[in-house]
Amino acid sequence: GDALLPAPQSISILSTNMKHFLTWSPVIVQGATVRYSVEFQGEYEREYANGSWIPISECSLTTATICNLTEDISASVAYKLRVRAELGATRSPWGTTKGFFNRAMTSLTPPQLRAVADGHHLLVELADMGPSFQFRVLYWRKGQESRVQQKVLKEVSSVVHLDTMEAGAEYCVKAQTHVQAINRSSSFSPTQCVRAQGDPSMWL
Amino acid sequence: SGELYCSLPNPRNVRFESINMKNVLHWSAPEGTGDGVLYKVKYAVYGVGKWIRKPECRNINRTWCDLSSETSDYEDQYYASVKAFLNGACSDWMETTRFNPLTDTKIDPPMVSVSSTDRSISIILTAPEKWKTSPGEESISLLQVYPGLQYNVSVLNKKTKKRWFFSISNNTLVVPWLEPGTAYCVSAQIHVPTPVLDSGFSK
Amino acid sequence: TAGVKIFHFGACRVPMSMTEIRAGFTAIKANIQSRDPIRTLSILSHPHSLHKVKSSDRCCITYQLFTFYVDKVFKHCRTEDSFVNRKISSIANSFLSTRRKLGQCREQNNCMCGEESTEKFKQILANYEGLNVTSAAMKSLGELDILLDWME
């Protein structure tokens, strides 16, 4: 029966930059391929749908010991996850995450940023991090740290124009991500500085 | 009127095709029928209890019917249906899925006008208007229909082949400090964050 | 974009992940609406349109409608399709978290129910109870874009 197959252990959720994964230790049965099935339960299911669980089809009868939850953990409520092992008709008890997971707990890393000077124009290139992310970009002329300017970029498909620069002047840029859905921001990226084309005396 | 015996194959792929809320019903002729097939069209406002015939699309041989004026209220949703006739036989009524003009329309790119001085370019963007069902009708910009509408503007330096992007909410943009004697190509796209609607980029 | 829209009800600010809810609904819209054969009845839009609700009543109607969907609708929309069920769960949990924020507005007395919204909501419940529960729930879920369009 089911009792012969132990429940998966070391069940945990890895969540970085709003990408959420469930991982667990493999159940070892000599000479056999053990498969796993994962289900989730949101606060709605607990409180309004008799504590029902919803299977994740991409992680049903999978041999992997990791499951991408991102598509399903798509509300800012407390979720529970569970996984069981299956070998033929034999099924293990469910192994369930201890406590709850809310996507607000995701860890946010600073964005990858590249500052670009193109003639007199200050530009920034940011790696796309998915639809949940905005980028708060701060930039200033070197030496005028008190006059920092800000731009919030919602979609970063390519090189985004920030501002025009005074000839020959050096400008610095740094950025952080912001996730509106959980109202949290990452730390800032390292600062990068670039120099505008031209001779500074042109401005006198 | 007594319905004819409906043994004719049905019109296929009955759907709305909508651009800037010009809402046109399209369909494909029934399988295996040559020329001579005629059609009639009816539509319904979702939630309202009756189907309404479209007289201008009665006994037509084309496979489209402009229902823009019947579906111009984008606070409502609609169904439309087509029936085919040939040599005394007819098909069943074939319906569209539920049509929501607000979310199911496509948006044309904005109109882009560019002027330049020797070192800067000024760009003025104009969002397309909601399709007017009659010339006398009041013009409504899609900006009024989608208040969160934004513009993504691309500026390409033809010499360096570098492309810059700007994302703006108002409809004007000035790009100063450009290289004299250099050609810049400007293209713009409309982006509506929610409901998510994006136009293509203008030429 | 993340498409979190901040709704202002009096002094109350309620952030809602509209883009996420809409994306979830758009993914199942055709499937859900095809399960509703009744063209001539609507739960939300007829005979009285949401668009006629006074702005002072918007918060109350929004709270009542979110409660309506959480309490009455989603639980009766389970299907044989795992993908659809997962999207319904996503929408339901988003509604639950948004309704909680709306509830905080009510506690701060920023969500008063006028006569009009009470009447309007009665009409919606009457439309709902005029059908058997599964048909009514599926029809209501299929009309989610009517609610979202009105809110925006």
Automatic annotation (TrEMBL), chain C:
Family membership: Belongs to the IL-10 family.
The source's domain of life comes to: Eukaryota
- Compartment(s) where it occurs, according to its Swiss-Prot or TrEMBL record: Secreted
One GO molecular-function annotation for this sequence? cytokine activity
Q: Does the keyword Secreted apply?
A: yes
Kindly give the InterPro entries that the UniProt entry links to this protein. Answer: 4_helix_cytokine-like_core, IL-10/19/20/24/26, IL-24
Residue ranges of coiled coil = none
Does the record carry Secreted as a key word? yes
Record-given protein name: Interleukin family protein
Q: List the disulfide bonds.
A: 12-105, 59-111, 60-113
Gene3D superfamilies per the UniProt record, alphabetical = 1.20.1250.10
Q: Describe the function of this protein.
A: Immune regulatory cytokine.
Q: Which UniProt keywords apply?
A: Cytokine, Disulfide bond, Secreted, Signal
Output the Gene Ontology cellular-component terms: extracellular space
Q: Which PANTHER family match?
A: INTERLEUKIN-19 (PTHR48482:SF3), INTERLEUKIN-19-RELATED (PTHR48482)
Q: Which organism is it from?
A: Passerina amoena
